Amino acid sequence: MKPVEIAKGVYHVGVHDWNIRDFHGYSTEKGTSYNAFLIVDEKIVLIDAVKKEFADQLLANISQVVDPKKIDMVISNHTEMDHSGGLPRVMHYIGEDKPVLCSKMGKKNLSQHFSQDLNYRAVENGEEISLGGRSLVFLETRMLHWPDSMFTFDKTNGILFSSDAFGQHYAGYEMFDDVIGNAIMAHAKKYFANILLLYAPKILKLVEQVTQMGLDIRMICPDHGIIWRTDPAKIINAYVAWSQQEPLNKAVVVYDTMWKSTRIMAEAIADGIAEAGVAVKPIHIRSSHRSEIMTELLDARAFVFGSPTLNNNIFPTVADVLTYVKGLKPKNRLGAAFGSYGWSGESVKIIQAELEAMGAQIIDKGLRIQYVPDADAVAQCVDFGRRIGQAVNE
Ligand SMILES: Cc1cc2nc3c(=O)[nH]c(=O)nc-3n(C[C@H](O)[C@H](O)[C@H](O)COP(=O)(O)O)c2cc1C
């Protein structure tokens, strides 16, 4: 991809990873991009350094703007290897003595990622540097989403280089919010649900802090996906709303099944929930990726999980999703469990314990049906769904 001048003297020199479909367990059905930005001022600065296998492509992109050897310094906003893997190659090419500016934790983490000692320079939170025509300010954003994460803000032009925050896994030539339109919000939502939800309280604090500082943010350049140049407030407001976790009148019924009995239950429960006027979707785990399930759960009030009993336990895929969701620390949720069983029927209790461990309020004692549900059992499921729907409405 050719470099694009996104603002005067600021070039997107990043790369597209069109074919990636699994990004550390997240389904990237539209690929992704590793964005990197070159600022050409009296001093020349590269912000972030793409994934290792794309380092030469990054250097080739930079060469279309300036000789990479003219770069004076590199800023590493985040140590994760999709943004730093290319750093050793870039530094080798441009000169290993050149400074790599990063947070304090960035210095520690980068040296734990790469055996070679580069010229790391830890910047202070709020530290300002001048490139000649513009000033850059560094903002520590610890645990958003790694201990090393920081933002770099071009104070003069109102451009926030926000690392992974406000990103989306999306590869495309529509590089800006005004070009792609609202279609990008689904990708931003999925990204938030799967990468940032657990840091929601920190996000709310950060937005408050940034508002108090009165930063005039005119453009947001994340390290993945499109650039918010027309309406940066749109993604900031979406982050605030998602972080507040005030779920909709919505339930998601997530289940797996061996012989379809738990599916019959799931669909009848969804019927009952819908009868109560609550938006609902049954999701079969093996027909859907866990990161898509998490996206559906982001704004759902009720998490309804179902599993057959297998070897006195829950089905492994249900355990997978429950573990994943629990790690993302959803708040303000109702929970309910169901499942078909043969003789011992432990699954409902196990699911309830997991839902409780994630802080969900259990609505009902749960519903177990022995073997294949008959008409009476289906009616019980619909009734169970109605009770869930009522609890959501309350
Ligand atoms: C390999 C296997 C192990 C099972 N282990 C248990 C068990 O430990 N306890 C139990 O109550 N039922 C057990 N069952 C019975 C299932 O829970 C029962 O057939 C249930 O109806 C399956 O629901 P499903 O159609 O949604 O998969 C087992 C079934 C299979 C195939």
Automatic annotation (TrEMBL):
Short name of any one Pfam family annotated for the protein: ODP
GO molecular function: electron transfer activity; FMN binding; metal ion binding; oxidoreductase activity
Domain Flavodoxin-like: 251-389
Signal peptide (UniProt feature, chain positions): none
PROSITE patterns documented for this protein: FLAVODOXIN_LIKE
InterPro entries given in the database record: Flavodoxin/NO_synth, Flavoprotein-like_sf, Metallo-B-lactamas, ODP_dom, RibonucZ/Hydroxyglut_hydro, Rubredoxin-O_OxRdtase
Domain of life of the source: Bacteria
Family: In the N-terminal section; belongs to the zinc metallo-hydrolase group 3 family.
UniProt-recorded name of the protein: Flavorubredoxin
Native organism: Desulfosalsimonas propionicica
